[in-house]
Structure formats: structure tokens, C-alpha cells
Amino acid sequence: MQVNVRLFARLRELVGDSALPREVADGATVDSVWRSLAADYPSIAPYAASISCAVNADYAKRSTPVSDGDEVAFLPPVSGG
Amino acid sequence: MRQTLITNNVLDPNELLTVVYGPAVGGVTSFLGVVREQNQGRRVLHLVYEAYTPLAERALTRIVDEARAQWPELMIGIHHRIGQLAIGEASVAIAAASPHRTDAFAACRYAIERIKQIVPIWKHEFFEGGDVWIEGATADPEDATAKDTAMRIACR
Fold first, then answer.
1. Which one of A44, A76, B77, B137 has the lowest number of neighbouring Cβ atoms within 10 Å?
2. CA-based end-to-end distance of chain A
């Protein structure tokens, strides 16, 4: 199945894309999507402990399962205001 | 005028005040976050704000709901600007209104503290000699400790 990964701020710059479709295995979770992305783009790996995650524009846990067509976002630490 | 908004347009704090006015209101507070020309010894040229807009709007709504749970008579509006901002321009505008001033002051402070904790917006600072992404809090709206910290700051 395929998910649409969304990246923001420095993560977007490190990967060079704000949106990228990714093939993931059945049973994939937010965490497994992140780990496969970080394997392909090692420069983002240091963010593993500091990112937040969202599925379909709602905050999600690493353990959240993903489905075909989901938008899976990885968010570096925020700095609004 | 919407109660919560992520926008590319210049913020209008006076218009935001009209969102919170009502006959029960006895006190209104407002807060503007403004782009500063110095940051950590760097001379700032401008900031570019980026948002994950649909989630940022949900997070603002969540902050409104949290504040109204704490202060049931509160009216509050929060607008955040994104895109490129010059020195002196407002990045965030908050207006809070309540029958009494104490709750209006506290709610306004609570909102800005929570924005910095849980709203997916990022500052890209362009300064003399380079640029840097500002990274603050790992956003977790379910983190009760962070929420308590914001409430403690608001009510001290």
C-alpha cells in the first residue's frame, strides 16, 4: 500500500520534498514509516527522538497503524508564536 | 471573522477584538507576538513562518477548547500569520474577553504558552550571515505536564 509522507521545516529541507509517496508494507505503523524514511534519508535520523507525528492531519502516536492513502506527517519541534 | 485562523495576510488585532466582544464582557486582553530584530545575538533580517495548516487550525481550536474548559465564560480568538514577515510585523494575535479581568489576562497568557507547545508552525530565521530553523518544543497535546506548565505560567 502507499502513504503520502508530509515533511515540514528543516525535515522538508533535509529530504528535499514536502510531500512524497511511499510504499509501505501491510501492517505498517507511523514508526515503521519513519524508520524506512530515515533509512533512505539518513540526515533526518537525528530527529528520531524529537519529532511529532500526525496521520491525516491529527496528532498520532508512533504505534498508530497506517492505511492505504493516509497522509503521514513528521513534524520537527515547533516554534510558532 | 473566525475565532481561529492561520493566514498569509497581515493580522488585524482590532478586528480580532470584535470576535470576543459581547454584553457579558467586563475585560478584554490582547497579545501580539512581533518579529524582533535581534535574536540570540543575531541581527534578524526577516522571518518566514511555515505551518502544517490543517493540523495547526485544529491545534488552535484545541487551545480554545482547553481555555474555555478552564474559564467557562471566556471568549477567545487566536490568529497566526505565516509566510514572510518583516521586523515589527505581528506573527500572532490573541484576544481574550471575560466578565472579569483576571480570567482575560490568564487566558491570553495560557494561549500563547500553548501555541508554543503544540501548534505545528515553524520559524525560519534569516539573519545577517545566514539562516536557521528555530526548533522549540516537541509537540504533544496529550502531555499533561506541558499543559500544567502553561496553566501555571498563566495563573501566577
1. B137
2. 37
